[in-house]
Hints:
Largest sheet: none
Distance between the termini: 14 Å
Structural class: mainly alpha
Number of domains: 1
Order of helices and strands: HHHHHHHHHHHHHHHHHHHH
Amino acid sequence: xSLLLRLINPVVVSPTIAAIGLSFFSYGFTQVGNCLExxxxxxxxxxxxxxxxxxxxxxxxxxxxxxxxxxxxxITWAVAFLLTQSGVYSYKGCDINIPASNTLSAYCRKHLSRxxxxxxxxxxxxxxxxxxxxxxxxxxxxxxxxxxxxLAMCAVSIITSVDSVGSYHASSLLVASRPPTPGVLSxxxxxxGFSSILAGIWGTGxxxxxxxxxxxxxxxxxxxxxxxxxxxxxxxxxxxFIGKVGGFVASIPGVMVAALLCFMWAMLxxxxxxxxxxxxxxxxxxxxxxxxxLFFSLSVPAYFQQYGLTPNAxxxxxxxxxxxxxxxHGPFHTGYSGVNYVMNTLLSFNMVxxxxxxxxxxxxxxxxxxxxxxYVWSEAEAARREPAVLRDYELPFKVGKIFRWVKWVGL
Length: 411
């Protein structure tokens, strides 16, 4: 990753991260609308806790600010549970387990959406999940490799690494440490890749990357200890053996998840744009680059996803799956199906468009270092002479001594 650092700066990172958050705009409130009283309550509670009650201290801690999301989720889930148990979402003669296509009663079809999205027991996940379960490698069978999908995801992985670059730099400032060296940054990206390999072996369905919202968490909690992260990781690993924990999470109504993600994705977009504070935010050059990147990151993928389709043809497919089905009808029609698949898929990703436009314009349009806000990284030789920097960035338990022959493991 250190080879690409000269091309990446706040003007590139900012719209790329923001585009990730904005790309889900068509999913958020459209799902909340399936059960407005539950979804809107979730959104309002999180907003009230994180904004209006953020300065209230309990036992010296800003409880409402730190725990705005879990508090809002817990209260809303409790309300939905009480409404479900009291029969508010039970309709005489209607069964949620009967598919809509087999429902003959117009009365049941009318209330099917509320039964599906408002009830907390519609998934039956909590009852059907075992108390204890041991997840093991290749538990879902041998992984299937598809080179066309692999190429698309390699490009996406590079762009999520750009997100990590901004997060690493911001985190170092929040914990009052020197910025990491290019070697440390490459090591972090390498660990993300290694973790994604483990995720694939265990069949989790998602890769691993730096979550930008956690930078905000550090700022709010003032907690930047690696020991706290290690302890949290151990707790999460132990919880993965308790099936009822996963069943409880799966029992949360989808409308509550959508409402929660409305807040999280909005935060992601805002935190992405906050990277501009490292550059000249009043520069017309930067404003034009960021504006073009954000606008086309929404407009170009929409063109690719709707190309050659009749209106509402993809309305039943969630927005986050759209890039993967556009390969069959996108505007790229060459004689090579693999090229068509890769190009149609990549150009349907909002963050890919934002990154390409930002990185090309920022590195071709003239601008001073101060105007562009180039990230400052510590020099490896200078870092080795400072015990504080070594303590912050060395691998725990002296593991780094074993891997000194690997260039990106050290400073």
